[in-house]
Amino acid sequence: MAEHILLRHRDNKEISKLPTYRKGSGFSAFERAVTKLNPEEVTDIVFDSGLRGRGGAGFPTGLKWRFMDKNNWPHYVAVNADESEPGTFKDRELMESNPYQFLEGVMLCAYAVGCNDAYIYLRGEFWDLAHELDKHITKLHKEKLLGDQLFGTEYSLRIHTHLGAGAYICGEETAMLESLEGKLGQPRLRPPFPPSFGLFGKPTVVNNVETLANVPLILEKGAKWYRGFGTEKSPGTKIFSLSGNVMKPGNYELPLGTTFRELIFEHGGGLREGRSIKAIMPAGASSSLIVANDVALDTQMDYENVPNVGAMLGSASIIVIDDSVSMDWLINKTVHFFEHESCGKCTPCREGTYWMKNITERIHHGEAVWDDVLLLNDVATNIKGKCLCALGDFATEAVTSSIERFREDFETRVPQSRPKTEVKLSL
Amino acid sequence: MNHLRDQYGKEIEDVLARYPETQKRAAVMPLLYIAQREDGYVSTQDMDDIAELLAISTTDVASIVGFYTLYHDEQAGRYRIQVCNDLPCALRGADDFLDGLCDHLGVKPGETTPDGVVTVEAVMCLAACDKAPMFQVQSYDGIAYHEVQTVKSAVKLVDGWRKEKASG
Ligand SMILES: Cc1cc2nc3c(=O)[nH]c(=O)nc-3n(C[C@H](O)[C@H](O)[C@H](O)COP(=O)(O)O)c2cc1C
Ligand code: SF4
Ligand code: FES
Description:
The structure holds two protein chains of two kinds. Chain A is of the alpha/beta class.
């Protein structure tokens, strides 16, 4: 990217300082919104930009804001800064290095939905980061960009940080709200969705950090300008977190619709000498494994095209896997993760991840027979679609896709295979 | 007598002020971090104190402590080295790093060195996958990231803590 929209600290390191951010027209969008636009107008601009949620689901942001129940007050904004998907490390860089743009995004969102108290829910590990944000927030109060009766209007806004304490499930929006309320981080049954029943039972917008960091420039430069990046259905740029067997792992901000090939080989420097690319997980550990052939590599990374090669874009955490990796090892890692992170609220996920872990370990340690591979596939299939939240499904993606697409890895692991019979197991 | 209130009254008031008056319970997580500050874990006395402050039951507080991995109900090493060996880091050598560090310290993951200085733990992704091998250090009052590590750099850190301890 010539110029960044989000990772602007890469162009100007000083942007993390308030005077520098303000000099570059920072907070002028917020001031204009509060003094000149009504909340619906702000929402309309975001809606027209086509901005979609960057937390994973790609839901249209402006539409979500419009869903806020106007007959029930107060309204809250709860920013999802839980960032715990293995392979995702973009929100952290944004909040650390371009914090005021992020905070202005939170403020614009709050104004647009009539919220006076916004909460930023950060994973507990972001301890230092939360304390830095607190300092930035204090500065904004001093400069009268936060607080009561902003710019002489009736509008007041406060922002509070809230640290989680180590639980991936708290990234799921309703679990995050439960956690913020001081309860166990376990998902709620939906509907009702947060815009009608959210934090403390009140209408709440939950948005990802990166989603909101887009908003100040959208307000400043307009929806049409924003649509000049990316594709028609997936406008804008996206931060791709590139990790795994690649020479230059890191965050890369690129237009949505950039190909896997460009990201991995041009920006990421390709693979180590002598290694070739075997698979890609585009949505972190929750992802299916894409076979990294030419068709896949030439696929555009956006919400519409990634499904064509059998996966989702999700939070765009691109894990590169080279030919030294065997899939039984890989799913042993992912299944271990999900078993550890299952919140235990529903049986298929709690029990299913436990069984997947046992079987996967057996396979990985060469103590299994082919029936075990089938059994594993069966357990995974039985979890899918039967759970309260998406974590259950996430836990199965790598398992079923690798057994289907990298079968030989399992066949070599269980050489002494018994006859290949179907095994049925119901949960 | 509420030990936590006596010790941290002003800070606790500030925490409570962040949430609606009728939603005091929301303060349980920040209060647990305050409780952990003295000795790195939440004692039953702390849980009683928090329960009283927030008008919830001690069982409720205990279940929160049990649910989240960064709260502890037992004392461990002064510093917890939490090495990420989740998939992306493991693809960049995190398992070897963890083994090497454990060998050097003579512990297995989950164990504490005999001098009580360090507990080594294997943890899930910490949002620093491009900086593997990496770990965070949870001390009584905070969490700090250490990225792009070698066994040598990690051991140096531990040696520093040991010196600190020896000099009182
Ligand atoms: C298990 C699970 C974990 C999730 N983790 C995160 C996360 O760490 N950060 C995030 O922004 N969204 C996460 N999400 C998605 C959120 O539920 C929600 O869709 C998102 O925060 C909405 O914001 P957006 O519309 O701006 O993307 C997760 C979802 C699930 C099911
Ligand atoms: S699917 Fe798993 S994580 Fe989600 S609610 Fe059920 S048990 Fe909890
Ligand atoms: S996998 Fe280790 S920090 Fe993400």
